[in-house]
Amino acid sequence: MGTDKLFIRFEKEDTNVCKAIAVLLMLWHHLFYLHPEIRLIGDIGEGIPLHLASFGKICVTIFTVLSGYGIMCGELRCLSKSWIEFQRNRTFKLYKKYLFVVIITLVIFWFFRETWAASVGTGLTMCYRIVLSLTGLQYIFLNMGINIVWWYMSMIFVCYLSFPILKPVVLKYPIWVVLGTIAVIPLAYVNIPRFGGLQILSWASGFYIGVLLADQNRLNNFVNKIVLNSLACKLIFVLMMLLCIFRVYYVSYAVYTRYIDVIITILLMLRIAASDKKDGVIRRGMEYIGNISMDLYFIHIIFVEYITKNFTYSLTDSLQMFFVVLIGSIAAHYLLDIIRYFMFKIITVSKFERVIDGLD
Q1: CA-to-CA distance for 338 and 154, rounded, in angstroms?
Q2: ∠ CA 341-24-140 to the nearest 5 degrees?
Q3: What's the chain's average pLDDT?
Q4: Would you say 50 and 33 are in contact if contact means Cβ atoms under 8 Å apart?
Q5: What distance in Å separates the CA atoms of residue 184 and residue 176, rounded to the nearest whole number?
Q6: How far is 349 from 155, CA to CA, in rounded Å?
Q7: E strand segments, 200-265
Q8: pTM higher than 0.85, yes or no?
Q9: Phi/psi zone of residue 8: left (φ > 0), alpha (ψ -120 to 50 degrees), beta?
Q10: Distance of CA 265 to the CA centre of its chain
Q11: At 351, is the pLDDT very low, low, confident or very high (cuts 50, 70, 90)?
Q12: Cβ distance 301 to 31 under 8 Å?
């Protein structure tokens, strides 16, 4: 057996497990971060859902680091020849998925237009937020657009647009990237009216940490050093859990939360990569949720704030609420898939007819 076959990698399946953890934390965060009165189960655990919801904000860091890691791995496999080629192959592909969901969301919001208008405004204000949302760059102007969770897409689009330009500098000076991350993270808490550039810069730092982890196989090399040492694997798991507990109960939304989030994310990636990859019900389920995590991210807030809001918050405990939103979002994913399928068929048939017409 060749040594390459023995080399353990942080693979797509591992990425999906991490994405699943992130998206489940995201659902919990958006359900309960404004509801201190909700109990965990029945009359037990008042305040626990709120504490866990504050911890759930780590989902942004996990997604951002994974995004940078994935982009860099893609570039290592197939290097883009130019900025334009990268944007065509990466950014535009992502933008098409985003734009499709924005249009579908606008259709859905029509049926909740009175409630929606209370959130986004009316008249020119509504039009302004719709136009910004269609561009995907709404958070540059410190605007949430038509969906409060889509600010993340603005940050990712900025990362994609800047990546081909900043990549040579990032790879040449990795220590400065780490120091820069430490320096820019607090910028998320600096408010400049109608300008979200500092917040985007702060959150984007995780993206370039992910780039560094992929470059020169840094993450995979470390995984292969610890995987043969069961004690090291256990220590990583224990350290990660201790940081999570500290993060949940003692930190909340403090500035240094973000530093802890980056450390937890790296430890999570190491632990998942070094874990037993044998098929199991839980792992297969997590891989499935991670695989559809983009749709869950795009669509879940519609259930939280509109479609099932009254029913969800009428339930007796947080776990019931959580599963209502999760199951509804998964069902919405399949609905989106059906719409995509028919749209693809229509577009494909239209292109084929144009080709045939050109031959006649």
Answers
A1: 27
A2: 75
A3: 88
A4: yes
A5: 12
A6: 35
A7: none
A8: yes
A9: beta
A10: 13
A11: low
A12: no
Residue with tokens 């860091």: 61
Q: Which two tokens stand for residue 303?
A: 């259930």
Percent of the chain with pLDDT over 70: 93
What separation in angstroms does the CA of 217 have from each of 197, 237, 262? 31, 21, 18
Most confident of 70-84, 108-122, 147-161, 304-318: 147-161
pLDDT at 4 over 50: no
Q: Which of 227-236, 251-260, 266-275 has the lowest mean pLDDT?
A: 251-260
Q: Which residues contact 185 (CB under 8 A, 6 or more apart)?
A: 202, 205, 255, 258, 259
Q: Which amino acid makes up residue 254?
A: A
Q: Which residues contact 42 (CB under 8 A, 6 or more apart)?
A: 316, 317
Using an 8 Å Cβ cutoff, are 233 and 226 in contact?
yes
Residue 248 scores a pLDDT above 70: yes
Q: Judge whether 336 and 295 are in contact, CB under 8 Å.
A: yes
Give the type of residue at 206: G
Tokens 């655990």 sit on residue: 45
Whether the CB-CB separation of 204 and 158 falls below 8 Å is answered with yes
As given in the structure block, the two tokens for residue 154 are 């603005």
Least confident of 6-15, 50-59, 288-297: 6-15
Residues in the chain: 360
Neighbour-count burial for 283-303, b at 16+ CB within 10 Å, e otherwise: beebbebbbbbbbbbbbbbbb
Spatial separation of the C-alpha atoms in residues 97 and 104, rounded to whole Å: 11
Kindly give, in sequence order, each residue whose CB lies less than 8 Å from that of residue 277, ignoring residues fewer than 6 positions away. 13, 14, 283
User: What is the Cα–Cα distance from 360 to 357, expressed in whole angstroms?
Assistant: 5
Both tokens of 285, joined, read 């389920």
Residue 357 burial (C-beta neighbours within 10 Å; 0-12, 13-18, 19+): exposed
Q: What mean pLDDT comes out for the span 135-158?
A: 92
265: left (phi over 0), alpha (psi -120 to 50) or beta: alpha
Q: What is the pLDDT of residues 189-211, one digit of tens each?
A: 888 888 999 999 999 999 999 99
